[in-house]
């Protein structure tokens, strides 16, 4: 029964097969296949491993072929990042420049309002020299005293002192006035150096360095010397500078 089915199937294949040319080989494929199969050695574990090494995975090969294309995309990615980052950097720079401009404007305004910027002692040499000369003369006159002519000291005080300095001068020379007739005292004050600390219009402050000599002209004549340092506030009245306050740096 199987032989009959085999014949039927063979006839069907022959009926559907294309016509063959004369002289052509009939069905060489089975023999070639059989020969190839017979010549092929049996596959072992070692040959399988060798095939895996020498014949890599097609997907891996495809991946390695695609790898060189990746650097080509790098410039585009870098350019994209630059396009995104550049506007942000420019915005940040604009904010920083604006903040710096505001700070500079505020600082300049505060410097214009700072009292030190109004101190013309740093720039007006003529006015600085004038106030130094007038106040040095005034200090020498009001802090000198002669027991034989006390009125001279009073005239100097009324000429060169004003405001709070009048009372301060009187308190400072109270002991000298009291002891002068008895000890025949002669007090002489000479300004050795002065500096204008502040000068603004009709107001000034000066630091004074002076030498003082106190001479007793009685039976036992004796002279003592001392150095003095103090500051004075001066004001301008007309063409004259007057001492308005005396600071001896004592509390």
Description:
Strands 1-2-3-4-5 form a five-stranded antiparallel beta sheet, with helices on both faces. The chain is of the alpha+beta class. It contains nine helices and five strands. Helix 6 (125-142) runs antiparallel to helix 7 (150-160). 55% of the residues lie in helices and 22% in strands. The relative contact order is 0.08. Strand 3 and strand 4 (222-237) form a beta hairpin. The protein has a domain at 120-247: Roll (Nuclear Transport Factor 2, Chain: A), CATH 3.10.450.
- Please report the number of helical segments: 9
Most strands sheet:
5 strands, antiparallel
Q: How do the strands line up in the largest sheet?
A: 1-2-3-4-5
Strand-pairing-aware structural class? alpha+beta
Which percent range fits the helix content? 55-70%
Radius of gyration equals 59 Å
| Span between termini | 143 Å
**Any guess at the CATH architecture of the domain at 120-247?**
Roll
Shape: rod-shaped
- Provide the CATH topology of the domain at 120-247: Nuclear Transport Factor 2, Chain: A
The tally of strands reads 5
Unreliable runs, pLDDT <50, ≥5 residues?
23-40, 44-70
| Rounded mean pLDDT score | 76
Q: SSE order, as H and E?
A: HHHHHHEHHHEEEE
Strand content: 15-25%
Text of the CATH class of the domain at 120-247: Alpha Beta
